Amino acid sequence: MxxxxxxxxxxxxxxxxAFPGIRAFDVSVITEVWGQDRTDRGAPAFDLRRTASDTATxxxxxxxxxLLPDRTLGWLDRADLIVIPGRDDHLTPT
Length: 94
Fold this sequence. Notes:
This is AraC family transcriptional regulator. The chain has one helix at about 25-35, and strands at about 10-15, 45-50, 60, 65, 70, 80-85. By secondary structure, it is α/β, with parallel strands linked by helices.
């Protein structure tokens, strides 16, 4: 892999979109893939942010866990990649 930074010499900005009912497993995989610094092994740099409608309210996930977002959905405009975790009842509107 190329270890060069993302666009304009910065890490790639990755946004995880959090909403009620997302699977904790999916969040953990996204965090493992894009949230770990592997630049020492030649991987590109990533800046993973967890986004939701507000940053003051924890987002409930399946299995009783909750995620506290660090950015609002407004940050999505700055992201190079937007990742949406799955949910078991994907046909039910949130």
